[in-house]
Design goal:
Helices cover about 60% and strands about 5% of the residues. Strands 1-3-2 form a three-stranded antiparallel beta sheet, covered by helices on one side. The protein has a three-stranded antiparallel beta sheet with strand order 4-5-6. A hairpin with a 7-residue loop joins strand 4 and strand 5.
Length: about 500
């Protein structure tokens, strides 16, 4: 087995400890094992070899643990156990990736022979001029797309291109996320919004316009002022045809652009991320151009200050990273290093905020109960003022109010004791002041906590990269020190000889 860690996240000792925990949980003490921590690459990793024979019963690991269905076999549990251990140590995990396309499908796409790609394009075209999902299914049949729609089944929708070489139906999920029943319904609704905003009906997109007819007669637009009446009667028809064709063409282009933008959403998001990563380079010239240039004594003063980012100045894209960190509130490398591990932070007020919220929520509930008691009290006093048959009759008519009042009074007696001062119960005004004080304290801490969360999220983007750089520099220094020690030993040996 090989257990790998993200660059700079663990030391060799920690990697060995985690590897031992993995073996103890996975092998349960029944099999011998050997662990070697390897650092020949940028990331540390453990090589693990274990004996296939059980120490106590002599059975093979394969026959004991690798029987039954695939999801029940031992190797299926290995990653789950490793992830649990890494979570306990505050380490990062690998996000599972979705299934990609096969190599054969990729080659067919490149050659233009992929029926799946043809099916995607055809379905996308049908969505453009469909009013809703039911209309979409009808248009699929008219466009040569066979479908099977079973809403009660796990896989609700299947497609097949009729007469195009496709032998079997393919599930909508295998075509991509944008071709499920829910996604198609959402896309049609968004397309309809775009069409209504452009004053275009779906019928205008069913039959594509024929540009040949209007393009052969561009000149009549210039002969509108001709004196002959027959031409004037014919010209408005050509003009309206041209305007109608142009309107349809513009609408079709707009909808096609809209749909293409939806399918290119991931690429657009990547471009946005790259753009935001490049923006912090702009404020960089400001610190390099100090304002007090005329006075040499003042320009020398900043040189005496120690650079707070000295430890990572040599790292690639250091200026961009530092500018982004400072924009997020992280002002020095020492402050950044406080986010390297999941250790408690002085600005993290999660527990305090939760405790304060619990306290003032309890007080607010008590105040609400006291107000509710005052609202019900007149009915209850009237009930107490009666006796005998009239009292029982009154109770039957107002049973819910009387029971509510008694339950409210009971709740107040149980919960107001904790707020008593010198044995006296607090008034509603005193409770309100106490709640307001707790809320004001919560607001103050929440401002600091929000700033801390911003710093933590900003630091998280570069933690792994910075730690990897620091570890690489440390390893270089250790290698250099080892080389110098070796040279010193050789010099001493030569001197003795």
């Amino acid at each position: 087995m090989i257990q790998s860690f993200a660059p700079g996240e663990v030391t060799p000792e920690q990697a060995m400890q985690i590897g031992e925990e993995l073996c103890d949980r996975y092998l349960k003490g029944d099999y011998q094992y050997v662990i070697a921590v390897h650092h020949d690459k940028s990331h540390l990793h453990c090589h693990i070899i274990f004996n296939n024979t059980n120490l106590y019963n002599g059975l093979s690991f394969t026959t004991e643990h690798n029987q039954g269905r695939k999801n029940e076999r031992a190797w299926a549990e290995l990653r789950e156990i490793s992830d649990e251990i890494c979570k306990e140590h505050g380490l990062s995990l690998i996000d599972p990736k979705g299934k990609g396309i096969s190599y054969l499908e990729l080659l067919k796409q490149q050659e233009g022979k992929s029926w799946k790609e043809k099916l995607r394009v055809r379905i996308a075209e049908v969505m453009l001029y469909s009013r809703d999902f039911a209309d979409f299914l009808r248009n699929c049949t008219a466009s040569g797309i066979e479908y099977v729609y079973t809403p009660k089944n796990k896989y609700k929708l299947k497609f097949k291109l009729s007469g195009d070489g496709q032998q079997r139906f393919t599930r909508a999920e295998t075509l991509g996320e944008g071709f499920t029943v829910e996604s198609i319904t959402e896309q049609i609704a968004e397309i309809q919004e775009k069409l209504s905003a452009a004053n275009v009906t779906p019928d205008m997109l069913i039959e594509p316009p024929k540009p040949v007819v209007p393009k052969t007669e561009p000149k009549p637009t210039q002969t509108v002022t001709a004196p002959t009446k027959p031409k004037q009667s014919a010209e408005p028809n050509t003009i309206t045809e041209k305007s109608e064709t142009a309107r349809r063409k513009a609408a079709a282009e707009q909808v096609e652009k809209f749909f293409a933008a939806r399918r290119a959403r991931r690429q657009a998001q990547l471009d946005m991320l790259n753009a935001t990563a490049a923006k912090p380079t702009e404020p960089k010239p400001e610190p390099s151009a100090p304002t007090p240039q005329p006075t040499p004594t003042e320009s020398k003063a900043p040189e005496k200050k120690e650079d707070p980012w000295k430890a990572i100045r040599g790292m690639g894209r250091a200026n961009e990273i530092i500018a982004d960190l400072e924009a997020g509130g992280v002002m020095s490398f020492s402050e950044l290093s406080g986010f390297f591990f999941n250790t408690p932070h002085s600005d993290d007020h999660t527990t305090e905020l939760a405790d304060l919220k619990k306290k003032f929520t309890a007080i607010d509930t008590l105040i609400a109960k006291m107000k509710h008691r005052d609202e019900l009290e007149p009915v209850y006093k009237e009930y107490q003022g009666k006796s005998g048959w009239s009292q029982s009759r009154f109770k039957k008519k107002n049973a819910a109010t009387i029971e509510d009042y008694e339950a409210t009074v009971k709740y107040i007696k149980e919960h107001i004791k904790r707020y008593a001062v010198d044995g006296k119960q607090p008034t509603m005004l005193a409770l309100l002041e106490k709640s307001n004080k707790l809320k004001s304290k919560w607001n103050r801490l929440n401002v600091e906590h929000t700033a801390f969360l911003t710093k933590r999220e900003t630091a998280k983007k570069y933690t792994r990269q910075v730690r990897q750089y620091i570890n690489e520099q440390q390893m270089k220094r250790e290698c250099e020190q080892s080389r110098q020690r070796t040279q010193a030993k050789r010099r001493n040996k030569n001197a003795l000889e």
